[in-house]
Amino acid sequence: MIYFDNAATTKMSDAALDALYSVSKLQYGNPSSSYSHGRNAKGVLEEARAIIATCIGASPEEVFFTSCGTESDNWAIHQAYEAGINRIVTSNIEHHAVLEPTSTHSRLGMRAFYLNVNAQCIIQPAELVSKLDGQKTLVSIMFQNNETGAKQDIKELARITHSDCVDSVFHTDAVQAVGHTHIDVKELDVDMLSASAHKFNGPKGVGFLYAKENKLTSPLIRGGGQEKGLRSGTENVAGIYSMAIALKENCDQLKENTMRISRLEQLLLGEMKKAGIQYHINADSSNRAIGILNIAFDGIDGEGLLNMLDMHDICISIGSACTSDSKERSHVLKAMGLDDSRIDSSVRISMGRYNTENDVAQLVQRIKAYYDVVRVAN
Ligand code: PLP
Fold it and tell me: Active-site residue numbers?
Protein backbone atom coordinates (compact mmCIF):
# COMPACT_ATOMS: atom_id res chain seq x y z
CA MET A 1 0.00 0.00 0.00
CA ILE A 2 1.25 3.46 -0.88
CA TYR A 3 -0.22 6.19 1.27
CA PHE A 4 -0.57 9.72 -0.11
CA ASP A 5 -3.47 10.88 2.08
CA ASN A 6 -1.57 12.27 5.04
CA ALA A 7 -3.92 15.26 5.37
CA ALA A 8 -6.73 12.80 6.16
CA THR A 9 -4.71 10.97 8.78
CA THR A 10 -1.14 9.77 9.34
CA LYS A 11 0.58 6.52 10.18
CA MET A 12 1.49 6.38 13.86
CA SER A 13 5.18 6.65 14.60
CA ASP A 14 6.89 3.75 16.38
CA ALA A 15 7.60 5.98 19.38
CA ALA A 16 3.91 6.97 19.62
CA LEU A 17 2.82 3.32 19.30
CA ASP A 18 5.28 2.22 22.00
CA ALA A 19 4.02 4.98 24.30
CA LEU A 20 0.40 3.98 23.68
CA TYR A 21 1.15 0.36 24.44
CA SER A 22 3.31 0.84 27.50
CA VAL A 23 1.01 3.37 29.21
CA SER A 24 -2.04 1.19 28.45
CA LYS A 25 -0.26 -1.84 29.89
CA LEU A 26 1.43 -0.33 32.91
CA GLN A 27 -0.15 3.01 33.84
CA TYR A 28 -3.80 2.08 33.56
CA GLY A 29 -4.85 3.69 36.83
CA ASN A 30 -7.56 6.34 36.82
CA PRO A 31 -5.79 9.72 37.19
CA SER A 32 -8.52 10.84 39.59
CA SER A 33 -7.85 7.97 42.03
CA SER A 34 -5.98 8.93 45.17
CA TYR A 35 -3.75 5.83 45.59
CA SER A 36 -0.32 5.73 43.99
CA HIS A 37 -1.39 3.82 40.86
CA GLY A 38 -3.84 6.65 40.13
CA ARG A 39 -1.33 9.33 41.07
CA ASN A 40 1.18 7.74 38.68
CA ALA A 41 -1.34 7.97 35.85
CA LYS A 42 -1.93 11.62 36.80
CA GLY A 43 1.84 12.11 36.60
CA VAL A 44 1.85 10.69 33.06
CA LEU A 45 -0.92 13.12 32.10
CA GLU A 46 0.94 16.09 33.51
CA GLU A 47 4.16 15.05 31.79
CA ALA A 48 2.26 14.90 28.49
CA ARG A 49 0.78 18.34 29.14
CA ALA A 50 4.22 19.81 29.79
CA ILE A 51 5.68 18.22 26.62
CA ILE A 52 2.85 19.57 24.47
CA ALA A 53 3.06 23.02 26.06
CA THR A 54 6.79 23.20 25.28
CA CYS A 55 6.18 22.20 21.64
CA ILE A 56 3.78 25.14 21.06
CA GLY A 57 5.34 27.75 23.38
CA ALA A 58 2.50 27.60 25.95
CA SER A 59 2.39 26.97 29.71
CA PRO A 60 1.12 23.54 30.78
CA GLU A 61 -1.94 25.11 32.48
CA GLU A 62 -3.02 26.41 29.07
CA VAL A 63 -3.32 22.95 27.47
CA PHE A 64 -6.65 21.07 27.75
CA PHE A 65 -7.07 17.54 26.45
CA THR A 66 -9.99 16.68 24.18
CA SER A 67 -11.19 13.70 22.15
CA CYS A 68 -10.28 15.16 18.74
CA GLY A 69 -9.77 18.30 16.68
CA THR A 70 -13.51 18.58 16.09
CA GLU A 71 -14.20 18.76 19.82
CA SER A 72 -11.49 21.40 20.26
CA ASP A 73 -13.01 23.57 17.50
CA ASN A 74 -16.53 23.15 18.88
CA TRP A 75 -15.32 24.02 22.36
CA ALA A 76 -13.62 27.24 21.25
CA ILE A 77 -16.81 28.50 19.64
CA HIS A 78 -19.02 27.36 22.52
CA GLN A 79 -16.66 29.05 24.99
CA ALA A 80 -17.01 32.38 23.19
CA TYR A 81 -20.80 32.05 23.18
CA GLU A 82 -20.88 31.24 26.90
CA ALA A 83 -18.59 34.22 27.58
CA GLY A 84 -21.22 36.51 26.08
CA ILE A 85 -19.52 37.15 22.74
CA ASN A 86 -22.27 37.50 20.18
CA ARG A 87 -20.30 38.00 16.95
CA ILE A 88 -18.18 35.47 15.11
CA VAL A 89 -16.02 36.10 12.07
CA THR A 90 -14.79 33.01 10.30
CA SER A 91 -14.06 32.09 6.67
CA ASN A 92 -15.67 30.20 3.80
CA ILE A 93 -12.86 27.66 3.70
CA GLU A 94 -12.97 26.42 7.30
CA HIS A 95 -13.34 22.75 8.13
CA HIS A 96 -16.88 21.64 8.99
CA ALA A 97 -15.67 21.30 12.60
CA VAL A 98 -15.81 25.13 12.64
CA LEU A 99 -18.55 25.81 10.08
CA GLU A 100 -21.12 23.55 11.76
CA PRO A 101 -20.83 24.94 15.32
CA THR A 102 -20.77 28.43 13.79
CA SER A 103 -24.15 27.86 12.18
CA THR A 104 -25.50 26.22 15.36
CA HIS A 105 -24.43 29.22 17.42
CA SER A 106 -25.76 31.66 14.88
CA ARG A 107 -29.15 30.00 15.35
CA LEU A 108 -28.63 30.64 19.09
CA GLY A 109 -28.12 34.34 18.45
CA MET A 110 -24.46 34.87 17.50
CA ARG A 111 -24.09 36.95 14.32
CA ALA A 112 -21.81 35.14 11.89
CA PHE A 113 -19.69 36.79 9.20
CA TYR A 114 -17.69 34.85 6.62
CA LEU A 115 -14.44 36.02 5.01
CA ASN A 116 -13.73 35.18 1.37
CA VAL A 117 -10.52 33.88 -0.13
CA ASN A 118 -8.77 34.75 -3.38
CA ALA A 119 -7.88 32.24 -6.13
CA GLN A 120 -4.86 31.16 -4.05
CA CYS A 121 -7.14 30.34 -1.10
CA ILE A 122 -5.79 33.27 0.91
CA ILE A 123 -7.80 35.64 3.13
CA GLN A 124 -7.11 39.35 2.70
CA PRO A 125 -6.54 40.90 6.17
CA ALA A 126 -8.35 44.07 5.00
CA GLU A 127 -11.56 42.06 4.75
CA LEU A 128 -11.26 41.14 8.42
CA VAL A 129 -10.87 44.83 9.27
CA SER A 130 -14.12 45.52 7.43
CA LYS A 131 -16.01 42.89 9.47
CA LEU A 132 -14.89 44.21 12.89
CA ASP A 133 -16.61 47.14 14.53
CA GLY A 134 -15.02 47.60 17.95
CA GLN A 135 -17.34 45.07 19.63
CA LYS A 136 -16.25 41.82 21.29
CA THR A 137 -15.91 39.23 18.52
CA LEU A 138 -14.67 35.68 18.17
CA VAL A 139 -12.46 35.40 15.08
CA SER A 140 -11.84 31.80 14.05
CA ILE A 141 -9.51 31.31 11.09
CA MET A 142 -7.75 28.10 10.19
CA PHE A 143 -3.96 27.99 10.17
CA GLN A 144 -3.56 25.76 7.16
CA ASN A 145 -6.28 24.48 4.85
CA ASN A 146 -6.77 20.73 4.78
CA GLU A 147 -7.70 20.61 1.08
CA THR A 148 -5.21 23.02 -0.49
CA GLY A 149 -2.50 23.53 2.13
CA ALA A 150 -3.02 27.34 1.94
CA LYS A 151 -1.55 29.00 5.05
CA GLN A 152 -3.14 32.17 6.42
CA ASP A 153 -1.27 35.05 8.04
CA ILE A 154 -2.44 34.11 11.53
CA LYS A 155 -0.17 36.57 13.33
CA GLU A 156 -1.52 39.51 11.34
CA LEU A 157 -5.15 38.37 11.64
CA ALA A 158 -4.77 37.97 15.42
CA ARG A 159 -3.15 41.41 15.64
CA ILE A 160 -6.03 43.02 13.74
CA THR A 161 -8.57 41.25 15.96
CA HIS A 162 -6.97 42.40 19.20
CA SER A 163 -6.33 45.93 18.05
CA ASP A 164 -10.01 46.32 17.12
CA CYS A 165 -11.19 45.27 20.60
CA VAL A 166 -9.04 44.01 23.48
CA ASP A 167 -11.81 41.66 24.59
CA SER A 168 -12.10 39.96 21.21
CA VAL A 169 -10.86 36.39 21.01
CA PHE A 170 -8.77 34.86 18.23
CA HIS A 171 -9.03 31.12 17.67
CA THR A 172 -7.18 29.12 15.03
CA ASP A 173 -7.96 25.60 13.86
CA ALA A 174 -4.35 24.45 13.56
CA VAL A 175 -5.20 20.77 13.09
CA GLN A 176 -3.24 20.57 9.82
CA ALA A 177 -0.33 22.67 11.05
CA VAL A 178 0.61 21.41 14.51
CA GLY A 179 3.56 19.03 14.23
CA HIS A 180 4.24 20.19 10.65
CA THR A 181 5.30 23.77 11.08
CA HIS A 182 6.86 25.87 13.82
CA ILE A 183 4.15 27.19 16.14
CA ASP A 184 4.61 29.53 19.08
CA VAL A 185 1.25 30.62 20.46
CA LYS A 186 2.76 33.62 22.26
CA GLU A 187 4.55 34.86 19.14
CA LEU A 188 1.33 34.48 17.15
CA ASP A 189 -0.69 35.99 20.01
CA VAL A 190 -3.64 33.63 19.49
CA ASP A 191 -6.09 33.08 22.36
CA MET A 192 -7.11 29.56 21.42
CA LEU A 193 -5.70 26.89 19.12
CA SER A 194 -7.05 23.44 18.20
CA ALA A 195 -4.98 20.36 17.37
CA SER A 196 -5.49 16.65 16.73
CA ALA A 197 -2.99 13.84 17.36
CA HIS A 198 -3.79 11.69 14.34
CA LYS A 199 -2.61 14.42 11.98
CA PHE A 200 0.91 14.32 13.40
CA ASN A 201 1.62 10.58 13.64
CA GLY A 202 -0.21 10.13 16.93
CA PRO A 203 -3.34 8.09 17.71
CA LYS A 204 -6.90 8.84 16.64
CA GLY A 205 -9.50 10.06 19.13
CA VAL A 206 -7.30 12.49 21.04
CA GLY A 207 -6.55 16.18 20.63
CA PHE A 208 -6.06 19.34 22.61
CA LEU A 209 -7.22 22.90 22.91
CA TYR A 210 -4.71 25.58 23.84
CA ALA A 211 -6.39 28.45 25.66
CA LYS A 212 -4.49 31.48 26.89
CA GLU A 213 -4.52 31.84 30.65
CA ASN A 214 -8.03 32.59 31.99
CA LYS A 215 -9.63 32.53 28.53
CA LEU A 216 -11.31 29.17 29.02
CA THR A 217 -14.11 29.34 31.55
CA SER A 218 -16.96 27.16 30.23
CA PRO A 219 -17.06 23.42 29.65
CA LEU A 220 -18.45 21.83 26.53
CA ILE A 221 -18.65 18.42 28.23
CA ARG A 222 -19.91 18.28 31.79
CA GLY A 223 -19.64 15.56 34.40
CA GLY A 224 -17.01 14.46 36.89
CA GLY A 225 -14.96 17.66 36.72
CA GLN A 226 -11.69 16.52 35.13
CA GLU A 227 -9.41 19.12 33.49
CA LYS A 228 -10.05 21.67 36.26
CA GLY A 229 -13.79 21.17 35.84
CA LEU A 230 -13.61 22.29 32.23
CA ARG A 231 -13.63 18.99 30.37
CA SER A 232 -15.19 16.08 32.16
CA GLY A 233 -14.62 12.43 31.33
CA THR A 234 -11.88 10.04 32.45
CA GLU A 235 -8.80 11.03 30.50
CA ASN A 236 -7.44 8.89 27.66
CA VAL A 237 -4.09 8.71 29.46
CA ALA A 238 -2.33 6.40 27.00
CA GLY A 239 -3.65 8.30 23.97
CA ILE A 240 -2.66 11.64 25.49
CA TYR A 241 0.86 10.48 26.32
CA SER A 242 1.23 8.95 22.87
CA MET A 243 0.07 12.27 21.36
CA ALA A 244 2.73 14.14 23.33
CA ILE A 245 5.48 11.75 22.21
CA ALA A 246 4.34 11.99 18.57
CA LEU A 247 4.29 15.77 18.72
CA LYS A 248 7.69 16.04 20.36
CA GLU A 249 9.22 13.71 17.78
CA ASN A 250 7.70 15.65 14.88
CA CYS A 251 8.81 18.98 16.36
CA ASP A 252 12.34 17.67 16.97
CA GLN A 253 12.52 16.43 13.36
CA LEU A 254 10.66 19.34 11.79
CA LYS A 255 13.56 20.55 9.65
CA GLU A 256 14.47 17.10 8.27
CA ASN A 257 10.83 16.15 7.65
CA THR A 258 10.11 19.41 5.86
CA MET A 259 13.20 19.12 3.65
CA ARG A 260 12.46 15.52 2.84
CA ILE A 261 8.79 16.13 1.97
CA SER A 262 9.72 19.19 -0.05
CA ARG A 263 12.19 17.10 -2.08
CA LEU A 264 9.53 14.45 -2.70
CA GLU A 265 7.07 17.11 -3.78
CA GLN A 266 9.55 18.56 -6.26
CA LEU A 267 10.31 15.07 -7.51
CA LEU A 268 6.60 14.35 -8.09
CA LEU A 269 6.00 17.59 -9.96
CA GLY A 270 9.18 17.23 -12.02
CA GLU A 271 8.49 13.61 -12.96
CA MET A 272 4.90 14.39 -13.96
CA LYS A 273 6.12 17.19 -16.19
CA LYS A 274 8.75 14.91 -17.75
CA ALA A 275 6.05 12.30 -18.38
CA GLY A 276 4.02 14.89 -20.33
CA ILE A 277 1.16 15.03 -17.81
CA GLN A 278 -0.63 18.39 -17.93
CA TYR A 279 -1.63 19.64 -14.49
CA HIS A 280 -2.31 22.80 -12.49
CA ILE A 281 -1.73 23.18 -8.78
CA ASN A 282 -4.78 24.71 -7.12
CA ALA A 283 -3.99 27.45 -4.60
CA ASP A 284 -0.35 27.54 -5.59
CA SER A 285 1.46 30.37 -3.88
CA SER A 286 4.38 30.98 -1.57
CA ASN A 287 1.86 30.52 1.27
CA ARG A 288 1.13 26.88 0.42
CA ALA A 289 2.24 24.33 3.01
CA ILE A 290 4.72 21.71 1.90
CA GLY A 291 3.18 18.29 1.39
CA ILE A 292 -0.43 19.12 0.47
CA LEU A 293 -0.90 19.26 -3.29
CA ASN A 294 -4.34 19.91 -4.70
CA ILE A 295 -3.88 19.20 -8.39
CA ALA A 296 -6.18 19.47 -11.40
CA PHE A 297 -5.30 17.15 -14.28
CA ASP A 298 -6.42 18.36 -17.72
CA GLY A 299 -9.17 16.17 -19.16
CA ILE A 300 -9.19 13.74 -16.23
CA ASP A 301 -11.97 12.97 -13.79
CA GLY A 302 -10.54 13.12 -10.26
CA GLU A 303 -12.85 10.44 -8.93
CA GLY A 304 -11.88 8.08 -11.77
CA LEU A 305 -8.21 8.66 -10.99
CA LEU A 306 -8.77 7.99 -7.29
CA ASN A 307 -10.61 4.74 -8.05
CA MET A 308 -7.94 3.55 -10.48
CA LEU A 309 -5.17 4.30 -7.96
CA ASP A 310 -7.16 2.50 -5.28
CA MET A 311 -7.17 -0.63 -7.47
CA HIS A 312 -3.38 -0.44 -7.32
CA ASP A 313 -3.40 0.15 -3.56
CA ILE A 314 -2.41 3.79 -3.77
CA CYS A 315 -4.38 6.17 -1.51
CA ILE A 316 -5.12 9.77 -2.49
CA SER A 317 -8.30 11.79 -2.00
CA ILE A 318 -10.67 14.19 -3.63
CA GLY A 319 -11.46 17.01 -1.22
CA SER A 320 -11.12 16.42 2.49
CA ALA A 321 -11.60 13.06 4.20
CA CYS A 322 -14.82 14.33 5.68
CA THR A 323 -16.33 15.40 2.37
CA SER A 324 -15.01 12.62 0.15
CA ASP A 325 -18.10 10.49 0.81
CA SER A 326 -20.31 13.35 -0.20
CA LYS A 327 -21.28 14.09 -3.77
CA GLU A 328 -21.08 17.82 -3.08
CA ARG A 329 -18.24 19.68 -4.73
CA SER A 330 -15.59 21.00 -2.33
CA HIS A 331 -16.70 24.21 -0.60
CA VAL A 332 -13.05 25.25 -0.47
CA LEU A 333 -12.37 24.96 -4.20
CA LYS A 334 -15.71 26.68 -4.89
CA ALA A 335 -14.76 29.53 -2.54
CA MET A 336 -11.58 30.00 -4.60
CA GLY A 337 -13.74 30.55 -7.68
CA LEU A 338 -12.77 27.36 -9.52
CA ASP A 339 -15.30 26.18 -12.08
CA ASP A 340 -17.02 22.80 -11.87
CA SER A 341 -14.86 21.11 -14.50
CA ARG A 342 -11.65 22.22 -12.77
CA ILE A 343 -12.99 20.99 -9.43
CA ASP A 344 -14.04 17.66 -10.93
CA SER A 345 -10.56 17.11 -12.36
CA SER A 346 -8.85 17.84 -9.03
CA VAL A 347 -7.38 15.46 -6.49
CA ARG A 348 -5.45 15.93 -3.26
CA ILE A 349 -2.09 14.22 -2.88
CA SER A 350 -0.76 14.72 0.64
CA MET A 351 2.69 13.53 1.61
CA GLY A 352 4.07 12.54 4.97
CA ARG A 353 7.31 11.63 6.64
CA TYR A 354 7.03 7.96 5.68
CA ASN A 355 6.74 8.49 1.91
CA THR A 356 9.66 7.49 -0.27
CA GLU A 357 11.04 8.22 -3.75
CA ASN A 358 9.79 4.81 -4.81
CA ASP A 359 6.23 5.77 -3.72
CA VAL A 360 6.49 8.85 -5.93
CA ALA A 361 7.80 6.83 -8.90
CA GLN A 362 4.91 4.38 -8.65
CA LEU A 363 2.36 7.15 -8.32
CA VAL A 364 3.66 8.93 -11.41
CA GLN A 365 3.71 5.68 -13.39
CA ARG A 366 0.06 4.96 -12.53
CA ILE A 367 -1.12 8.50 -13.18
CA LYS A 368 0.67 8.51 -16.53
CA ALA A 369 -0.92 5.21 -17.61
CA TYR A 370 -4.39 6.46 -16.66
CA TYR A 371 -3.80 9.85 -18.23
CA ASP A 372 -2.76 8.34 -21.57
CA VAL A 373 -5.73 5.95 -21.71
CA VAL A 374 -8.29 8.62 -20.79
CA ARG A 375 -6.81 11.20 -23.15
CA VAL A 376 -6.86 8.77 -26.10
CA ALA A 377 -10.45 7.75 -25.28
CA ASN A 378 -11.51 11.42 -25.25
N1 PLP B 1 -9.86 20.79 11.30
C2 PLP B 1 -9.15 20.48 10.21
C3 PLP B 1 -8.46 21.55 9.45
C4 PLP B 1 -9.03 19.13 9.81
O5 PLP B 1 -8.32 18.82 8.73
C6 PLP B 1 -9.69 18.15 10.57
C7 PLP B 1 -9.65 16.73 10.15
O8 PLP B 1 -9.66 16.42 8.96
C9 PLP B 1 -10.39 18.52 11.72
C10 PLP B 1 -10.45 19.86 12.05
C11 PLP B 1 -11.07 17.52 12.58
O12 PLP B 1 -10.12 16.81 13.33
P13 PLP B 1 -10.52 15.38 13.98
O14 PLP B 1 -10.50 14.41 12.85
O15 PLP B 1 -9.45 15.10 14.97
O16 PLP B 1 -11.85 15.55 14.59
Answer: 322
Provide φ and ψ at 288, rounded to 5°: -85, 135
DSSP β-ladder status, 292-297 and 346-350: antiparallel
Strand partners, 210: 63, 193
- Note the pLDDT tens digit of each residue in 256-291: 999 999 999 999 999 999 999 999 999 999 999 999
Q: Where are the beta strands (DSSP E) in the chain?
A: 2-3, 63-66, 87-91, 111-115, 138-140, 169-173, 192-196, 207-211, 279-281, 292-297, 314-315, 346-350
Q: CA–CA separation, 240 vs 242, rounded Å? A: 5
**Measuring from each residue's beta carbon to the nearest atom of ligand 1, which residues come in under 6 Å?**
68-70, 73, 95, 97, 142, 146, 173, 175-176, 196, 207, 320-322
5 CA → ligand 1 middle, Å: 13
**Sign of the torsion formed by the C-alpha atoms of 133, 134, 139 and 141:** positive
> From ligand 1's centre to the CA of 27, what distance in Å?
28
Buried b (16+ CB within 10 A) or exposed e, 43-64: ebbeebbebbbebbebeeebbb
Residues 6+ apart with CB under 8 A from 34: none
Question: How distant is the alpha carbon of residue 36 from its chain centre?
Answer: 37
Distance between Cα 368 and ligand 1 center (Å): 31
145 CA closest ligand 1 atom index: 3
Report how far residue 292's alpha carbon sits from residue 7's, in angstroms, rounded to the nearest whole number: 7
Q: Is the pLDDT of residue 41 over 60?
A: yes
